[in-house]
Amino acid sequence: MRNNKHGLLIIFIFVISTVLISACEKSLSSAPVATPTSIPTGLFVEPLPSAENPMAMIEEFAKQTAAAQTTVANGGTPVTLQAITTGTVITPQAGATATPTLAPSTPTNAVATTPVVATPGGPTTTPVPAGVRPASYTLQSGEFPYCIARRFNVDPDALLSLSGLTSAEANSLVSGTVLKIPQSGAFPGNRALAPHPTTYTVSSSDETVYGVACKFGDVDPSAIASANGISVSAKLTAGQQIKIP
Questions:
Q1: What would the CATH number be for the domain defined by 193-245?
Q2: Domain 131-191: which CATH number of 3.30.379, 1.25.40, 3.10.350, 1.10.260
Q3: Is the model more confident about 31 or about 107?
Q4: Fewer Cβ in 10 A, N or C end of the chain?
Q5: What value, to the nearest 5°, has the Cα angle with vertex 209 and ends 204 and 215?
Q6: Quick one: the chain helix, strand, coil %, rounded to 5?
């Protein structure tokens, strides 16, 4: 029995060899068109087919080879030989979930804030409206340069320098002296010498509305005259009550 199997195997090998040799000797009418060979898909495929009857496999392979050679000899497209497998093909499972990348979010209710600029501390002064500063001013009785500097919110040293005066001459000036008023700068400190509004009691008949205004520093004489219903050049008497705005 064993000898019969060996004999059959030799016969099949002889047949396959004869077919292959005859196919090589035949001239082809045209070059076969190359087609990609199908590759079994899957992660794991058995490299060698497992079969209990190897003779049956050889016989099947011989049939496919003969058919392929015949097709090529007739000018057809070569037939791809089918792989004979009895193993189980395992295909990968789909559905692998990729982890999404989260982009940084921008708040939709963001509120723009205005930067707060801190201002240096210092005494608060009453601003002088534009156009109030005259180019020059003539001193009246009871007035002095530092009083005028407070009234018009200018630097007293700049006022004296512009007027060609020194600080030593500031307290000895008489009425009728003309002072030049700077058009820029500010008084370096609190312009008020006394709190107001208030009521002031005239101490001497020598006092004037101009002199009373200088006692408060940043008050204009015309404002005092208007608040009391008198003229700015009115004569004052001792004990008289003067409203200071």
A1: 3.10.350
A2: 3.10.350
A3: 31
A4: N
A5: 80
A6: 35, 5, 60
